[in-house]
Amino acid sequence: MLGVVNKFFIASMLMWTVPLAILYAFNHNLIPGSTELSPYSMTLLSGFLAVISVNVVIAFYICMAMKEPSDKHEPDPKFVADAKVSITQPEPNEADSSSNHVKRE
């Protein structure tokens, strides 16, 4: 469980820092060739790359989650038992419930 939380935390932090780093690098001319772009083009390109970077981080997180072994996670036995009992119990009909409601009044 701790590994899952760590992966989620790291992915969440990367989703914040990577786009901000891209925007910072473009705005402070840290990327070679960005000085030759017009301000409009630089804003457009940096925003586009920031959005793409968030999607890459999300895809990376999904891949990490898919690679995690599924046999490691077992459901709570009490929850499973309660779910089985709730499935086997007959559900009251609407007519029965309405007649019970009338009897209570």
TrEMBL record:
Question: Which keywords fit this entry according to its UniProt record?
Answer: Cytoplasmic vesicle, Endoplasmic reticulum, Membrane, Transmembrane, Transmembrane helix
Q: What is an example of a Pfam family matching this protein? A: VMA21
Entry keyword Transmembrane helix: yes
Topology with respect to the bilayer: Multi-pass membrane protein
Gene Ontology CC annotations of this record: endoplasmic reticulum membrane; endoplasmic reticulum-Golgi intermediate compartment membrane; ER to Golgi transport vesicle membrane
- What InterPro entries does UniProt report for this protein, alphabetically? Vma21 (IPR019013)
Q: Does the keyword Membrane apply?
A: yes
Where is the protein situated, by its record's location annotation? Endoplasmic reticulum membrane; Endoplasmic reticulum-Golgi intermediate compartment membrane; Cytoplasmic vesicle, COPII-coated vesicle membrane
Q: Which GO terms describe its biological process?
A: vacuolar proton-transporting V-type ATPase complex assembly
**What is stated as this protein's family in its record?**
Belongs to the VMA21 family.
Tell me, what does this protein do in biology?
Required for the assembly of the V0 complex of the vacuolar ATPase (V-ATPase) in the endoplasmic reticulum.
Q: What is this protein called?
A: Vacuolar ATPase assembly integral membrane protein VMA21 homolog
